[in-house]
């Protein structure tokens, strides 16, 4: 029975750096999209908001029209009552009844005046709401055009990058399975805590990639020996030697060029 090959620290470092190169490539793809997905989502939310606002205004218009209808009915009823009272005044038996009917007539005339005033106020509200609806529709139209343009831009980028990202995500998962959970946890934690997402960096000119802090020669030798996993004391990132990094970069570049 063939003996199972032991996974060395060097194997782990190579797998980790391969994973970093793949994830960095995925990061680049997502950077190309930039804020576009967020912009599209924000515009969609804004348009949904304007749609609801228009619906609320239209509902308000319906309620005002109902009030106008009620006031018009009140005016019609008041006019009928006035006719009735005027007719009754012709048949009164004394001044008291005549004065009473006159007061009722005057009251109904006041009711008509108040209702007409209310109707004019309601019409002014209708005009204001219609102006608001027109203004919102105009803004919504511009936002819809802007959204269409942004979606077209995003779709174009997605078509260009989606296939590549899907392949890389699968490759990323393949390399993660080659690495023990403890190291993957550390890798993900470091990536989340650094701006550029670089959890594993090579030694460059005696310092960790992207850092100005020089690494002591003894530590550099230990890193080059690939006997244990060493982290940068300043950034906490995992360190690999430049030779290993260049070898893996060349290997991964061949993979990326085929996508």
Summarize the helices and strands and which ones pair or pack.
Layout: H1 9-33, H2 36-89, H3 95-177, H4 181-193, E1 200-204, E2 207-208, H5 217-225, E3 230-231, E4 238-240, H6 242-258
Helix pairs in contact: 1-3, 1-6, 2-3
CA-CA gap between termini: 39 Å
Given the structure, what is the number of helices? 6
Report helical residue fraction: over 70%
Total domain count: 2
Read across the widest sheet, the strand sequence of neighbours is 2-1-4-3
Instruction: Give the strand tally.
Output: 4
Mean pLDDT: 90
- Secondary structural class: mainly alpha
CATH architecture annotation name of the largest domain: Orthogonal Bundle
What shape does the CA trace take? rod-shaped
CATH topology of the largest domain: Helix Hairpins
Low-confidence stretches: none
Polypeptide structure, described:
- The protein is mainly α.
- It folds into two domains: 104 residues, no CATH class; 125 residues, Helix Hairpins (Orthogonal Bundle).
- A four-stranded mixed beta sheet has the order 2-1-4-3.
- Helix 1 runs antiparallel to helix 3, helix 1 crosses helix 6 and helix 2 runs antiparallel to helix 3.
- The radius of gyration is 39 Å and the shape is rod-shaped.
- The two termini are 39 Å apart.
Please supply descriptive tags for the structure shown above.
259 residues, mainly alpha, Helix Hairpins, four-stranded mixed sheet, 6 helices, 4 strands, 5% strand
């Amino acid at each position: 029975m063939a003996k199972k090959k032991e996974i060395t620290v060097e194997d782990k470092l190579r797998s980790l750096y391969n994973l970093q190169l793949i994830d960095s490539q995925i990061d680049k793809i997502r950077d190309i999209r930039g804020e576009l997905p967020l912009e599209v989502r924000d515009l969609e939310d804004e348009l949904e908001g304007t749609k609801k606002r228009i619906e609320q205004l239209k509902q308000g218009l319906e309620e005002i029209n109902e009030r106008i209808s009620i006031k018009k009915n009140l005016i019609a009823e008041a006019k009928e009552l006035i006719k009735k009272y005027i007719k009754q005044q012709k048949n009164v038996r004394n001044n008291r009844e005549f004065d009473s009917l006159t007061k009722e007539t005057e009251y109904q005339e006041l009711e008509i005046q108040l209702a007409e005033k209310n109707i004019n106020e309601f019409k002014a509200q209708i005009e204001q709401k219609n102006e608001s609806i027109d203004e919102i529709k105009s803004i919504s139209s511009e936002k819809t055009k802007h959204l269409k343009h942004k979606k077209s831009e995003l779709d174009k980028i997605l078509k260009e990058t989606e296939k590549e990202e899907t392949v890389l995500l699968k490759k990323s998962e393949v390399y993660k399975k080659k690495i023990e959970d403890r190291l993957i946890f550390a890798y993900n934690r470091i990536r989340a805590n650094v701006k550029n997402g670089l959890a594993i960096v090579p030694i460059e000119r005696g310092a960790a990639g992207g850092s100005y802090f020089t690494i002591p020669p003894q530590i550099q030798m230990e890193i080059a020996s690939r006997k244990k996993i060493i982290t940068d004391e300043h950034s906490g990132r995992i360190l690999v030697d430049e030779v290993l990094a260049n070898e893996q970069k060349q290997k991964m570049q061949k993979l990326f060029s085929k996508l």
